[in-house]
Hints:
By secondary structure, the protein is mainly beta. About 5% of the residues lie in helices and about 40% in strands. The strands form eight sheets. The chain has a 25-stranded parallel β-sheet that branches. Strands 2, 5, 8, 11, 38, 41, 43, 45, 48, 51, 54, 55, 58 and 61 form a 14-stranded mixed β-sheet that branches. The longest helix is centred in the N-terminal third of the chain and has 13 residues, at about 205-215.
Amino acid sequence: SFLSHSKQTLIVLTLHLYPAEAAVTCPARDPELEIWNPGHNKENRVEIRSGRKLLLSSSATVHSIHITEGGKLVIRDDVQPIILRTRHILIENDGELHIGSELCPYQGNVVIILYGRADDGSQPNPYFGQKYLGVSKGGTLEIHGKKKLSWTFLNKTLHPGGMEEGGYYFERSWGHRGIIVHVIDPKTGAVVHSDRFDTYRAKEESVRLAQYLGRVANGMILSVAVNDEGSRNLDDLARKAMTKLGSKHFLHLGFRHPWSFITIKGNPSSSVEDHIEYQGHRGSAVAKVFKLFKAENGEHFNVSSTSEWVQDVEWTEWFEKPDKARSKDMEKLSDFKAAHPDKICRQPIDIQAMTLDGVNLTTEVFYKSGHDYQFLCHGKDQTGEGCRNYRVRFLCGKSVKPKLTVTIDTNVNSTILNLADDVSSWKPGDRLVVASTDYSMYQAEEFQVLPCRTCRPTQVKVAGKATYLHVGEVVDGVDMRAEVGLLSRNVVVMGEMEQQCYEYSSKLCSFFDFDTFGGHIKIGLHFKATHIEGLELKYMGQQTMGHYPIHFHMAGDVDEKGGYNPPTYVKDTSIHNTFSRCVTVHGSNGLLVKDVVGYDALGHCFFTEDGPEERNTFDHCLGLLVKPSTLLPSDRDSRMCKLITEGAYPGYIPKPRQDCSAVSTFWIANPHNNLINCAAAGSEETGFWFVLHHVPTGPSAGMYSPGYSEHVPMGKFSNNRAHSNYRAGMIIDNGVKTTPASAKDKRPILTLISGRYSPHKDADPLKPREPAIIERFIAYKNQDHGAWLRGGDVWLDNCQFADNGIGLTLASGGTFPHDDGSKQEIKNSLFVGESGNLGTETIDNEIWGPGGLDHRGRTLPIGP
Length: 864
């Protein structure tokens, strides 16, 4: 080879970044910038114009900032954190605002706080309103925060309150009888040895136990407990050995007594112990101890031991009132036992009753001599003369079984999250959200990242423990891994909020008990350039039309087609605790929305508004905890739908489930948009909803001919997932009413109406059909439907459905033949009725019951 026959020469290339080049790459290094420290003055109306270029170098409070006529404001990046408070920032007419750049991301910490009340008397801008960062004609907005992973998946299941990486878990029941000993290294918290001594079966085991304890070195941690029975052949030698270690109850250990003990060998005063007598084959009994230790590396670990007799319980079947029941005031348990022999236990733990129509009743239980039960029903159709027209079931206890649990939690008050991607960009102090993997979206949980010297690149340590189960694996062939999103960023734009709700729009405080007048970012027609990445938005949006966290308003084509190079984008952005949507695309086309997390939002989260919005791409976006809002009928829940009648004709009687109740994580008003790698992980109603505007609405009126959106081909829909939604994971159906209310149709404009989708080439029904392809879609734990798809030529390929109330409905066009020759198709797909994802049982969970082939307890899509 060349290297083996010639001399090797090392050539070092050194790249020198000259000031002019540095200024282009890093805006804050521009030598033409003038240091600006305006101080704190709420009356200071700042005008940056006539080519003036300012470098904000310290925190400031001003009334407002207007950047125009070639003015430029740059945020300095090599100083302490900067907090800028202002009522609004307006950028127009060749004005520019820069926070970092694409090649030189901002590394410091900056917070822009938009302040002010709706009713404080300030004059709103006729286009932008109040409390805004606005980009108008000729304006440039460049925000580029640190590069951080936006979101990923759990790669290992997170159990409620349980231990994670580095812990120890030991559990036994029948077949592991006797005294169980664990020897634990105090330097590391690791179990170095364990053994079982069957002191029920033989005295030799008692001798072996005493000898074993004697060999354990002083300073080691001992965890000792009984499982099942350990007293029958327990002799004095073993009893005294345990007493010497610090036990006070082992001398008196009796038949089947639960007992747990933790100590440091050689230090009896360190001992913790619990002991209780056996309560019989129908009585639970628990002896539980725990102790906190500090390891050699300074980290704490917790040792816990639980010895118990556990009573499992189960509900009987539902029974109707016996014909022979003659009680005038209360029902007797003896009547039910006589009518259903051997089906009801002697002493039920609980009683539930409901009407034959399925309405829950309250039962008041009375005792007679401690045994004979009577109960009284309370309900709207029940009288004081006893229960009528009802059925009842009883909670019965099974025989107890033994259980021993020993845990060593090396992450005290913290948890290790195992993740699918490299998360080394997530740093201590960052906040995360872990999505629900059950039916309720409210099982999403927030965590704060902690320092972790031992974590791998795919792990983070977070403060606290999970309250709910969050699945981190493929279950029965369906990928149910919880999404984990980053909420915090080093560049923040936020609204300054009041402590409580106040009325700035009709009836707001009837629906919300908090201030909803947040800040907003709005980009209008003919802006010069807008690129947003690495940004955190919180307390943004308002319960008024047109004021959303990020809003492209009637901006037309914002990609190369509109002359924007590089094309406009919103990337790597966290939007949370918003008061009106997440990202709104209104009358704008070609926008890239990528790696955006939208969490805890009021109203449709990722929202296309009027119908003509096309060629927009939502790539790898995550939305979760999407709640109702007052703005549009489709945003509203049933109560809002009934109480908000503005825009309706007098005499209008709302039908909430038909007219409203459609709030969605992704609300797509034109099918010709792309959704790729996105997750709709929890909405009050629906994950993805493709809704049809027969004609464009609002300021977009007249932009296309009637019927265009019903026939336009669907953009790319691939590798998306939806779970923890109430109505459906995905819907293709319905339109919106595009005419104002009238005597003929009293419903307000934009109320949901019927609509049928039949895609054709060029949106022309006379040209060949062009099927909508839905590929690699996952829908699980949606309470009503995994997907409801109406219309012709909708084809599904390689999809997964599990644990949905109804997996998939392919609905017809409603008339036949609506689109002659069209078809619906699904292939290469998996349907699972009830998976191994059982969910989390909680005290007040009314939708927990038996299911699956093994009839184990699990969350159910709809309660009794």
